[in-house]
Structure formats: C-alpha cells, structure tokens
Amino acid sequence: MHILRRSVHFTALTIMVITLCACSAIPHQPSGGIPVEKDTLTNKGSDTIVNLALAWAEAYYVVRPDVIISVTGGGSGTGIAAMINNTVDIANASRRMKDKEIANAEENGITPVEFVIASDGIAIIVNPKNPVDKLTLQQVSDIFSGNINNWTEVGGEDRPIVRLSREVNSGTHVYFLEAVVRMGDKKDDTLFSTSTLLLPSSEGITTEIAQNRNAIGYDGLGYVTDAVKTIALAPDETSPYVSPTVETVMDSSYPVSRELYMYTPGEPHGATKDYLDWIFGPDAQAIVKNLGFVPLE
Amino acid sequence: MAMTASTRKSTHRNPIEILLETLVRLAGYSAVVFVALIFVFLMREALPTFNEVTPWGLFNRRWYPIENYYGILPLLTGSLVITLSAALIAIPFGLMTAVYIAEIAPRWLRELLKPLVEVLGGIPSVVLGFLGILVLAPLVREILRVPTGLTAFTGAVLLAGMAIPTIVSIAEDALDTVPKSYRDAALALGATRWQTIWRVTLPAARSGVLTATMLGIGRAIGETMTVMMVTGNAPQMPAGLSALFMPLRTMTATIAAEMGEVANGSVHYHVLFSIGLALFLISLTVNLTASAVLFRARRRTERLLS
C-alpha cells in the first residue's frame, strides 16, 4: 500500500510535470525574446510530509511557474540517504538527522543545513468501539514495549493488545521510539515489543485499526481519519488529559508533537533558497494548517 | 585437427546460419553468466557483514537495525514458516486440480478450466495483497478468533493462491504428455481409475510434477509485496504451532521495506545484502535438490528398464 500510495503521488506528480512541460513548450518571451531557463528542484523523503510538500509544490507553481518541483515520498531515512548521496535538492524528514547520518554526509563532502518547516502532533489511535479514551504516557510506553498486553490493564475490555507501528525507515517510528516508548530518556534502551506489527504505510495502520478492536497505533495528526479514535494523553496521572488537535499542539498542551524538517545539502541558494523563503511565508504556512499539520507561528 | 574440421565445416555453411548459431549459443551461456554475475555482486556487497557483525550478532533473535540489532533468525524462520505452510496448502491442492483437469474433467470443462487457472496466475501480487488486507485478514481474525488477521497464515494462504496456478499449469502439461497407451494398459490390467492415476500416470509424469512443485515453491519464497502487506512484519521468533497465527516477518519483506532507507556501504546495507545472499542460496539449494532427486530417479528407471 505504501508503494501504491507513492505511485499515486507519482502519477499526480507526473501529470503535474507533464503539464508544466507542456506549458514550458510555449517559449516565454520576456523583453529580450530570450526563452527563460527553467529550474528543477527535487524534493524527497518523509511520507508524513509528502502531502504537504505536494500541496506546496502545486501552490508554488502559481507563484513561480519557472520552477519545477518534483516531490516523492519513501520515508525520512530515504530522503536523508538521498541527500547524503547528493541526489536531491531538498530532503524532507519528520525527525532530526542522526549524528551518524551527518557524519556520513560530511564524508561525502556535504554539509546538511536544517530548516524547521512545520510541526505535527502524533496521535495515539484505536478502534472507535474501544472504550479506552485516555492514557498516560507511561501506559502508552508500557503498551508498546510489551509490559502491558491486555486492554483490562488500562481500563478496557478483556482483549489482547495488538500493537501497530510504521516501518523502521519512518521518521515517525524513530520519533515515537525516542519520545514515547523511551519517554525522552536518552539513556533508556527500551525497544518496541517484537510482536509489534510493522506496517509499510499509514493507510495500512488506519485500515487495521478501523477493523480491529484489539489494535492500537500511532500516526501523524494530518493522517487521522474518522474511521479511528484518538486517545487523550497526559504526561502523568495527576495532569489533565489532552486530545490531539492543531490548537493543543500549537499551545504545547498536547505532550507528543515533533517538528518537521527540510534539509539541503549545503547552504541553499538560487531557486532552492527562494522556495524555502516562500515556505516560511504566510501563504505556505496557511496550507500547513489546512492539511491538519501545525504551522510554525 | 579440430581447427581444420571446424573450418572445413564452416566453409560450406551459410554465414547467416553461423551467426544464428552463435547468437543461440550466447543466449544459452548468458543465463549462466547472469547467475554468476548476480552471485558475485551479492557476495561483494554481503561479505563485509562478517567483519562488521559477529556471528553471534547475526544469528540472534532480535532484528532492529536502527539500534544495531542484526539478528536474522526471526526473518529466516519467518520465511521458512510462511513458505512451508504455503507449500503444504498449494502442493496437494495444485496437484489435485492438475489431475482433475488432465485426467477426469470432460473435454469442454478442461478447455475452460486451464485458461482460467492461468488467468489466476496473472493477477498482480499487489492486488492479492489488497484482497488479503480487506477480505482475508478480517475473516481470519473473526473465524480463528486471533488478535489480528495480519498473520503468517494469511500470508501463506495468499502465497498458496499464487503458487497454485504455476503448479496446476506445469503439472497438467506433464500429465498431458503421458502416452495414452500407459493408461490403456493399466485399465486393461484391471486397475481402477484412481489406481491408474496414482500408480501409473503421476509416476510417469514425475519429473514434470516435481518441476511444477519446485517452481510453485520458488514463486512463494521469492514473493514480496503480498507478504509485506498481510503478514504484519513483526520480527518475532516463531514458537510452536501457534506461530502460524501470529504476525511474522519474512526476509523478502525486510529487504523491500528497508533497502530504500539505508546509506550505501553502511552495516545495515551489508546485512540486507547478506539476507539477499541467503535467499539466493536457499533457492539454489531447492533447485539443486530437485535436480538431484530427478536425476537419481531417472537413473533408477534406466537401470530397471535395461
């Protein structure tokens, strides 16, 4: 499904690119009558960001028809690996680059430059028929590390817990491991329970949760649909439980949110710089909110 | 001597014929060359693993590459459980279908069934995967009362579904080439229809039937997309029969899911190539065993007949 989704994006993209090419076939004739040269930007990485990046690329085409932006997904790791191998102009990532990755990039003579482009809340999701609707971070951590195996232990029905996660190449997976399973403790080396199902796409997780009352999973706020129920979270038992929404993520009352990044190989210049400047502007940030992500300010 | 013989031969031969013969010979050798090249490439990318990961680290029960856990045991056993169960479903079912089509079905039904089975073989695996997620997985969960329908069993059923058309098609062809006189002789000696099929026709078509089985299993072990979509991909060690109804992770799904992410030349990259090498060696062993069995069987028949 993951690949399928990517191919849907790819199709959309191809259509876009073909349209752009068709437009470019009509030579631009500014004052001097010299055809304007087109810039092509490649933008690849996080599947969390791919919808946002596509929406941006489409909107940017209206502003700057002379710049063609091609967007592909594949996961944060994929985008970062492509940047390390110097095959993309902008890598999208839903997690920070690891030290090892930065070292790899520098070995290739590339200095990655980081930009925070938006934020995203991570929602814990269950089947709508599951009576559990609030959990503490400790309980979520225990569920995913395998210490809690039945819903009765967190006030639910007598059912086994089926844990769902994205694959390890997903930035969301890495963020969830660090911020939730290990609760932000860098020295903690707790891992996901081996019985955790690693599904290749967000849609795979949503489909299974919508069908299965035993299941629990997590996903970016922008991907949550009506077919699943979000769980209200609290940092500990005495704190208030907060449901994930754009507002609660923006005012930091929802405890599990992360920043979304774009990386460029070296300081951006030319078309890349113009594009990034536009992304930090009000038009691009309005798109962020429309897609269920959290704008910068 | 050999030189002169071959030059003499080529003098009165059409140059086009020589060209064609060379092309055909090259095509024949190319298969060997390609396999050798693939093997060399796999070795080159996989060998550094053994410097970077200790044997203990490799034959461990934990697969979590982003934290440097490279234990491939859960993946090996996962593939094994799923492929074996798929074979256990597909071989009897496929052979029975082949026997029915070749030996029992009336002509008109046979003309209808054979192409239908072959159409079934042409369904893309991703489509089967979709059916698996949306139809089969919920059924498995509700009927077998297991926590989730994304299990090894679900994957095995779908893989069997993919292997069956291959098995049916090739086994049916093999049964079809058994001379009618064999069956006539058996029936004339008073054998029942079942005895004829079981004792005469099937053994006579043995080599084709074995090829069919091997190709079917080969299809199952190498299949990626479907298993990645329906088996849940949890890298846990199977323990006992209940493992069949738990999520498992296969070697192919691991390579497919993780290869896109790794940086060239990293430890993870080399380990993934080692898994590829293991897959290559496993299918090589399956094929060599099949050929050896066939060869020995043929020798035995020759001895009996002489």
Verbal overview:
The complex is a heterodimer of chains A (about 300) and B (about 300). Chain A is an alpha/beta fold and about 300 residues long. Chain A is built from ten helices and eleven strands. In chain A, the strands form two sheets. In chain A, strands 1, 2, 3, 4, 6, 7, 8, 9 and 11 form a nine-stranded mixed β-sheet that branches. In chain A, strands 5-10 form a two-stranded parallel ribbon. In chain A, helix 2 links the parallel strand 1 and strand 2. In chain A, helix 3 runs parallel beside helix 4. The longest helix of chain A is centred in the first third of the chain and has 24 residues. Chain A is globular, with a radius of gyration of 21 Å. The relative contact order of chain A is 0.19. The N terminus of chain A is likely disordered. In chain B, about 40% of the residues are buried. In chain B, strands 1-2 form a two-stranded antiparallel sheet. In chain B, helix 5 packs parallel to helix 8 and helix 11 packs antiparallel against helix 14. Chain B has about 300 residues and is an all-alpha fold. Chain B has 14 helices and two strands. Chain B has one domain: Orthogonal Bundle (MetI-like fold), CATH 1.10.3720.10. In chain B, strand 1 and strand 2 form a beta hairpin. Chains A and B meet through helix 3, strand 7 and helix 7 of A and helix 7 and helix 12 of B.
Under the CATH scheme, which class of chain B? Mainly Alpha
Helix content of chain B: over 70%
**Which percent bin holds the helix content of chain A?**
25-40%
The end-to-end span of chain A amounts to: 34 Å
Strand content of chain A: 15-25%
* Strands side by side in the biggest sheet of chain B: 1-2
**Biggest sheet of chain B: strands, sense, closure?**
2 strands, antiparallel
Poorly predicted regions of chain A: 1-34
User: Termini separation of chain B (Å)?
Assistant: 37 Å
**Main sheet: strands, sense, barrel of chain A:** 9 strands, mixed
User: What's the quaternary structure here?
Assistant: heterodimer
- Count of helical regions of chain A: 10
H-E string of chain A: HEHEHEHEEHEHEHEEEHEHH
Radius of gyration of chain B: 24 Å
Question: How large is the radius of gyration of chain A?
Answer: 21 Å
Please state the overall shape of chain A, judged from the principal axes of the Cα atoms.
globular
Total number of distinct structural domains of chain B: 1
Low-confidence runs of chain B = 1-5
Q: How many strand elements of chain A?
A: 11
